[in-house]
Amino acid sequence: MQRRLSELAELVEGRVEGDPDRVIGGLTTLDEAGETDISFVIPAYRQKAAASRAGAFLVGENMRGLDRDLLVAREPRHALAMLIEEFYPPAIEIPSGVHASALVDPTARVDASASIGAFSVIGASSEVGARAVIHPHVVVGGDCTIGDDAVLFPQVVLYDKTDVGARSVLHSGVVLGSDGYGYATRGIEHTKLRHVGRTIVDADVEIGANCAVDRALLAATHIGAGTKIDNLVQVGHNARIGRGCLLVSQVGVSGSTALGAGVVMAGQSGVAGHLELGDGSRVTAKSAVFKPVEAGETVAGIPAVEANQWRKTQALTNRLEEMRRRLRELERLLGGRDQKG
Question: What are the residue numbers of the active site?
């Protein structure tokens, strides 16, 4: 596939600085690119870009002084996503229909345009929407709903009463709807609280490999539309994750906690149960949240506090040894003065 740089600019609603007729045959990294390739450059890669053989660069409005033809985009990461789709179309078209080795309960409803892969199971009263793709070795329990154009990769497991919205993507090893961690404890005896609620994943959600989302005790654990969850994330029972949230790898959300719209939790951060994180709030990496977070607030640390407060505390902590040394010197001087007096 070959495209002129001007054609790519039109595709991504950008502009060309340089030769609009330059022919681009591929999109790849700065290290691998040749004269007919375009590469994505951010400010941190400026030096690497200077050494690259790429014929053109995709850049944002803030990038100047690069000695190549430029495709300048107002939102370069969105432009990159569009170029990936242009240069790397799906290699294999998955046929519709049910594989001969799949087990589909007679009461299940599978749209004729959906694809059910080898050795997959669709349980009683479940529904699979139009053009949904169920890859091999997926287990869908009873009373589940898979929306139109959803994709479930191999080894995904949906327990009973789990709903997956349209265009959502579940990567390998995702488990939705397993029992929440709930017990009634008397002494050292723990009586299981059987969880009978649902697990609901709205439209356009992506959940990375080996994540677990527990079912609710009585109502529903809910993942809001457009939320993106990285690998190895745990979402507890009765949690409510708002629209457009980002949960990065190894995040833990305890039971009955609510995240507002657009919340970001960075890698290895966690939040205790029965708390609320307001719309647009941020939790930095490795932080542990033990109290509610206001809308738009950024918190950091263990326990998590307002991020600027945490930075000041860290700066003071780094000076403790110096402060201790100076304090001892003052004590020595004052002690000597007392002896002379």
Answer: 237
